[in-house]
Amino acid sequence: MERTDFILSYRVYAKLAKQPNMAQHLFAKGVVEVEYRRVSCKYGNLLLKIHEHSKYPHYLAIVVMNQGGATDILAVEVYEEETKEWISMRRAYGAVFDLSSPPSGELNVRLLTSARAETKWVQSDKAVIPAEWKAGATIETDI
Q: pTM to 2 decimals?
């Protein structure tokens, strides 16, 4: 079975307990196994959120959101205009991808996706992340 990380807030994690007074027992376990099933996403375009721990311009982390019910994101890259090269982002955990010393300027993003046994790169026709991005910002793409 493939492993997936679900990173939950304290409040949401507490709601996993069957009874409110049992939440402390759940917190004591830390990491727990969760059984789930995918459901299709009705939202059309992919959203990227600049993670709160991002530090302009020295560290960039993005959260891939609304990726659709049957699509997995395998890799994320950003395009460096100066060198005309794609730079791989590291998968930090779950749907968070990061990069130390990201290139300056507007950034285009491409994602390696897998759906129904088909793997392909998808990307926008224009820059997705603005030159002076800010931690916490959510960006709607045309992907």
A: 0.74
DSSP 17: S
Q: Round to whole Å and give the CA distance between 31 and 82.
A: 42
The Cα 49–Cα 39 span in angstroms is 21
Query: DSSP letter at 89?
Result: P
- Largest Cα–Cα separation, the chain: 56
**Which DSSP state fits 95?**
T
Instruction: Tell me the per-residue pLDDT of 59-118, one tens digit each, with 9 for 90 and over.
Output: 999 999 876 556 788 999 999 888 999 999 999 988 899 999 999 999 999 999 887 789
Whether the CB-CB separation of 107 and 54 falls below 8 Å is answered with: no
